[in-house]
Amino acid sequence: MKFAFPILTAKGEEFKDVKALTELINGEQSGHYLLGNHNKWHGGIHISDKSAPWCKDKYPVRAIADGKVVAFRMMKDYLTSEYQGESLRYSNCFCLVQHEYCEINAETKAKNEFTFYSLYMHLLPWDKYQSAEKLVLKKGWNARNSVPHANPDAEQQRVDAALPRFTLPKDTELEMDSSAPSQKGNVGGKEYDFIKVIIKSKLSNAQIKEAEKAGVLVSERSSVWIANSPDAVEVIKPNVPTWLFDQIEAELSKNMAGRADPVSNDKSGRLMAGSGSVSLPAGTKLQYDAHQLEFHWIGDKARKMARCKYVMPSGDGVQGSCGIAWVCVEDEFIKAKTLPPSHLGELYVLPSPVAIAAGETIGYLGLVETPGSLIGGKKSKHQVHLEVFTQDPRLDDVLANKAGTKGGATYAKVPVGLVLHEKKKQDGKDLWVATADKSLEALVESPGLEKDATKQEWVCVSSGKYVKKEQVELLSQHDWLKIGFKTVDGTGSDGYLDPDAPPAFFTDLVKSFDSDGNGELSSEEIQAALQNSSNADQLHKLIVKHPSEWYEKSSASSYLWLNKLMAKLGLPDFDLLVDHEKQRIDKLEWMQSATKLTLEKDSWHFSPVGIMALAIKAQNGHPRTYIGDTLNEIEFLSFYNGEVVEESDYVNAASELGCEVNAIKAIALTETGSTGSYYKFSDQDDAVLSILFERHKFSNMTDGKYDKSHPEISNPVGGGYGKYKVQYKKLMLAYSLDKNAALKAASWGKFQILGSNHLSAGYKDVNEFVSSLSGSEKNHLKAFVNFIKADNRLLKAIRAKDWLAFALVYNGPRQKGYDKRMKDNYNAL
User: Fold this and answer.
1) Residues linked to residue 247 through DSSP beta bridges, in sequence order
2) Residue 515: its pLDDT value, please?
């Protein structure tokens, strides 16, 4: 499963890391995890136009992980409520996405898995989505009443220079005026396409008067001409959530494969994409039901697929071929025709959930207007409420890492009082010398591991300070509870932090991460602890069971605290405010009404920031292996997901190649039968892709420039391979000299395919090839099939079991008995 940040930066880019996103969200004045406004429980976080104004209409909120849209409510317009004579608008639009978390122990194949949901509440209603492209000025840019000449003579230049113009300010919003086509014009000796646009932004009175003085009308909805330069004009296309639509008409924007029905992988549970059954050229017309999308795995990627009716382009008056096939319908491959969405204005549970990818559009921030005070007025902001929750009983096993899954981010749990050591040099050797300092209790992320001459392993726990490995507990990101995640059960809580009598639930929340306090906690102390940014790390690791705020209507017992508060205060205006809020509570409820989802009242809530911090850190991380005596992260590898090539995979591959299953198995046994597809040297390192570094290939690819300085890894003569334990040491030295050549000079995986053959193996570059094979053993077989199909000599030889002919091409003219070993392995099978 892939994860993504829920929003982009103001520049439309990915956030550098979770910390950068957290700093932005911390600027929100309300809607924090665990405790929201008015001393009330809050199960999610708010992202608003106060911190991310670009999410109002420019860059939408996105799905945080691969999953399926299972329910939504999309209204045509905002709902309104009345308070003290003021009409207040708000959005009850939402999208609910279901996700399947699954991590596999690469050795035992045991799984940690559970189902969770992400909720996106207060989305922009349908009628507020832009229907056409919007233009936004990146900088101050001139507006004109007319277009200057395209090829002006001297006199025309003087006339053009005198034409009225006014500089529109940066961030002015415009839309195309379809009443006039674009025209060529010359400014300062440079030719531009001039376009007629309508001003959408409201400029200040001073700006309007200044423009009038210059002879240009720039009031709202006025039309002007501007030079259409990408340096000054940003085009923002309508970004409508595709999960709203069912029947879609589209056109392929590039050549694609139409595929047969998917094949289920029994062990992983994945749907593997069917084989290519038809080649569909760009321009092919597609029709499909977007509420019947599925994720099918192609290589190491889950692709969004639809079962499409297709009609190929016609040629020479002949009707194009038509049929039905599975096609990848992601945005980069198709141009979809926008059709009116169905099921507007209702709570809709999809009969067949719609696949959605991490980072795919959910929607824009919706407007929420609230009473300004007891006597009236209003406060306005655009926001989305993002919530992550589960009701899956398997959560306990996942948090305890019952499957013993490893990989991803690593940690060292250091107890207090250990003797700290420093690394010194003596006679050219590294020695670890005890100091007078003692360790503090700590959880060290990505600890460095090294071995001394006696093979004693040392863990770096702070800058230049080490302890013996056996003195600490080494953990992975899958050890949720051991790395600081905690659960708090608030079942039965009404979620109100009573100032006079703080309930035990909120006291338990604070004491779960702050054990220094003695005795009872006041409401003020609880509020301060839960809203203190210095406690953010601990708060984001709390997983809390609590009744959902979206489950019940205002008449339920969980809202009795409001009635008690009304009786206590005895203020008529407050009574009116409570009545107003109860009306909204009833309109916002969805969970109990969506009966087909069979969701219950109580859910375990996660901090969205906390779960993203864990997942994205792993997603962006890389496996570690020993280079000499030091454990190093290998930046070009992906974590191995534990998948293996199964008998059904061999059968499918043999069918595609037209050869025997045992012929493929014999080649695999010959190449890596003694070492396996992955290397793992200790309990601390990760499984990494098996390799053989070939020095003569590296020498050839780098024109021998390193032959003299590094003969052990660059030599025109082959050989000198050494044991498999030194292969990554050689590779990383070569990688430090020439990254691309190093990866191409190694043979990779179960079938030892040379990196330089990545194109024949079905990959656009060697980095994609290496990353894919390191992630799943199944991709080794797919790469092998592609490689064999790309060379007719190999295809012919494997079908005939002509081992000599096969080895002379596959292993090279100096194949040194590979043919005999293949034959022997085949006969043994």
Assistant:
1) 289
2) 61
**Per-position DSSP letters for 354-411, written without gaps between them:** EEE-TT-EEEPBEEEEEEEETTEEEEEEEEEEEEEEE--TTHHHHHTTTT----SSEE
Q: How many CB atoms lie within 10 A of CB 782?
A: 23
* List of long-range contacts for 621-626, beta carbons under 8 Å, 24+ apart: 621/408, 621/409, 623/407, 623/685, 623/686, 623/687, 623/688, 623/774, 624/410, 624/684, 624/685, 624/686, 625/679, 625/681, 625/685, 625/686, 625/688, 625/728, 626/681, 626/682, 626/685, 626/725, 626/728
Per residue, what are the HEC states of 198-251? EECCCCCHHHHHHHHHHCCCCCCCCEEEEECCCCCEEEECCCCCHHHCCEEEEE
Residue 765's contacts (CB-CB under 8 Å, 6 or more residues apart) are 758
Half-sphere exposure of 639 (CA within 13 A, CB side): 24
Q: Is 591 helix (H, G, I), strand (E, B) or coil?
A: coil
Residues 258 and 252: beta-carbon distance below 8 Å = no
Q: What is the pTM of this model?
A: 0.76
**What tokens does 464 get?**
């230049």
Cα angle for residues 788, 790, 795 (degrees, 5° grid): 40
pLDDT score for 814: 85
- Give pLDDT, residue 86: 93
What angle in degrees, to the nearest 10, is found between the helix axes of 766-775 and 778-789?
140
Return the bridge partners of 401, or none.
none
pLDDT tens digits for 713-736?
999 998 889 988 899 999 999 999
What tens digit of pLDDT does each residue of 207-256 get? 999 999 999 999 999 999 999 999 999 998 888 898 998 888 999 999 99
Instruction: Say how far apart CA 487 and CA 512 lie, in whole Å.
Output: 8
> From CA 493, how far away is CA 715, in angstroms rounded?
72
Burial 191-222 (b: 16+ CB within 10 A, else e): ebebbbbbbeeebeeebbeebeeeebebeeeb
Q: Give the C-alpha separation, 200 to 179, whole Å.
A: 16
Residue 804, pLDDT > 90, answer yes
Q: What angle do CA 201, 207, 208 make, to 5 degrees?
A: 75
- The sign of the CA dihedral 456, 461, 462, 467 is negative
* Residue ranges of domains in the chain: 1-123+345-408+477-621, 134-236, 246-340, 410-474, 624-690+749-828
Half-sphere exposure of 252 (CA within 13 A, CB side): 23
8 A C-beta contact, residue 251 and residue 286: yes
| Percent of the chain residues past pLDDT 70, beyond the cut | 98
pLDDT 10s digits, 538-575:
999 999 999 999 999 999 998 999 999 999 899 999 99
**The tokens of 392 are what?**
């899956």
Q: How far apart are CA 188 and CA 559, in angstroms?
A: 68
pLDDT over 90 at 285, yes or no: yes
Q: Spell out where 585-666 has E strands.
A: 602-606, 624-627, 630-633
Both tokens assigned to 584:
């909204």
301 has pLDDT over 90: no
Q: What is the pLDDT of residue 518?
A: 59
Q: Is the pLDDT of residue 784 over 80?
A: yes
What is the rounded CA–CA span in Å between residue 650 and residue 277? 19
Which tokens belong to 437? 């300092």
Q: Any idea what DSSP says for residue 683? A: S
How far apart are the C-alpha atoms of 320 and 298, rounded to whole Å? Answer: 27
List all residues 6 or more positions away from 84 whose beta carbon is below 8 Å from its beta carbon.
371, 375, 376, 377, 573, 576
Cα–Cα distance measured from residue 697 to residue 700, given in angstroms and rounded to the nearest whole number: 5
Radius of gyration of the chain (CA): 32
Q: Are 41 and 499 in contact (CB under 8 A)?
A: no
Whether the CB-CB separation of 634 and 728 falls below 8 Å is answered with yes
Sheet containing strand 448-451, edge to edge, reads 429-438, 419-426, 465-468, 457-462, 448-451, 630-633, 624-627
